[in-house]
């Protein structure tokens, strides 16, 4: 079973974030400012041994990949930020490419969205950088940037093709033309094409003209079941809360939308470090519960979805509560229980 964990690169300083959020901002800034908002709220969450790492440090990437491999994670899906030729947070991915001694598999997800000051991708207010799209010249430039990764021997493949995940593809104008162009460019460079995968729930490959070009439709959890959580909702000191067990029950009730569906899973959710009282907290999570639910989802991945890929939120989404990395509270608990879930199948 290939458990592929989404990987956030926002753990190093960039000039844009310093200008937008304050000098020296990284994802750790949110975590250091997090507070407990109600009785029993598991915040602040502190990395084990205060390991507030910097992803421009090669030793951190070696540590992460060694740790992930030890506990059964198959590979990372690293977010890639491209705004019509402008890159953001690209250094960890580029460092990964340079460190050829790291043999851990990886793939790329184009995080195709605006950056807004509200941390709310549904808001068009106060856009920090707008996701824009160019013509064939820009498509070519983007492909040429991606090609060294797509052709890397460590890059995750599906059906002999490099797997490229695209977040919210429905927002991309001339999507079909772009994907055809990229496929043709890949074949011209010696690849067998590209296996495109959609991420999020709003893109329907069955009705869109570009849908046939996608090899996978990823159920990005827990966002995929967000509209099914009303029965598990409560307020605690004004903070929106959802039962962890209820959210997982909804995940386990999902069935493939089509033969290209790929299931998802999640570690936990709590985005109050970003949104404070406007965030949402899943309550009741433990490593042992995570193991139980992962066992079920791994079996369903094989027996219901008939695939060997399971996408997990997440390796290091600390500001949204989705991380396998060790913290001061649970230490290696989530990693250990992931390993046990995989070993039990």
Helix content: 25-40%
CATH C-level: Alpha Beta
Give the mean pLDDT.
97
Q: According to CATH, what is the topology?
A: TIM Barrel
| Unreliable segments of 5+ consecutive residues | none
SSE series: EHHHEEHEEEHEEHEEEEHEEHEHEEEH
Strand tally is: 18
Shape, principal axes of CA atoms:
globular
Return the domain count: 1
Largest sheet: 11 strands, mixed
Instruction: State the CATH superfamily name.
Output: Glycosidases
Using the CA coordinates, give the radius of gyration. Answer: 19 Å
CATH architecture type: Alpha-Beta Barrel
Number of helices: 10
Which percent band covers the strand fraction?
15-25%
Q: Quick summary of this structure?
A:
The chain is α/β, with parallel strands linked by helices. The protein has ten helices and 18 strands.
Task: Write out key terms for the chains shown.
globular, 11-stranded mixed sheet, 10 helices, 345 residues, TIM Barrel, alpha/beta, 3-stranded mixed sheet
Walkthrough of the structure:
The protein is α/β, with parallel strands linked by helices. It has one domain (2-343): Glycosidases (TIM Barrel, Alpha-Beta Barrel), CATH 3.20.20. Helices cover 30% and strands 21% of the residues. The chain contains 10 helices and 18 strands. Strands 1, 2, 3, 4, 7, 8, 9, 10, 13, 14 and 16 form an 11-stranded mixed beta sheet that branches. α5 packs across α6 and α9 (287-303) runs parallel beside α10 (333-343). It is globular, with a radius of gyration of 19 Å.
